[in-house]
Amino acid sequence: MISLGATTVWEKWDFKDGNGMNSHNHPAYTSVGAWLYKELAGIRMAEDTTSYRNIVITPGIFGDLNWVKSSILTIRGRISVSWEIVTYPSTTLALNVTIPGNTIATVNIPTDYFSGNGPSVRESDFVIWSKGLYMPGDPGVISGVSANGYVTFKVGSGMYNFFAFSP
Fold this sequence. Notes:
- By secondary structure, this protein is mostly beta strands.
- The chain is built from 1 helix and 10 strands.
- Strands 1, 2, 3, 4, 5, 6, 7, 8, 9 and 10 form a 10-stranded mixed beta sheet that branches.
- The longest helix has 9 residues, at 32-40.
- It is elongated.
- The protein starts with 31 loop residues before the first helix and ends with a strand.
């Protein structure tokens, strides 16, 4: 494509004009980038919102993949996620999240990697989840619940360093 002067991804790999080619600008083949930040980093816009006013973060922990770092620039600012999971000597998940101003995020931490009654969770210096209960006190964390295989926290804009571990 480049050797033929293309500056976009074509619908077909070879050059055709007229009836053989429907599009010289075909973004379907360029969606791998969106898959990386949506599925692996877990950055999504909430279904009930527009313009990333409400954000959902659900890290995509798959197979042997043990870390991801990604970000997306939105109209509200940069959303960043990095996570790393370590399984020896016990399972720990470090999840670092940056949420831009004037937004709210739902941060989902998967529980099926942790033994017993699920993980304990710290955010920076605050224990925010212990023995299946939300522990208020972190000024940026609005609430916490457990449902459907996740411990879920509602947070305002800011930088968060979550650390989930087996107690």
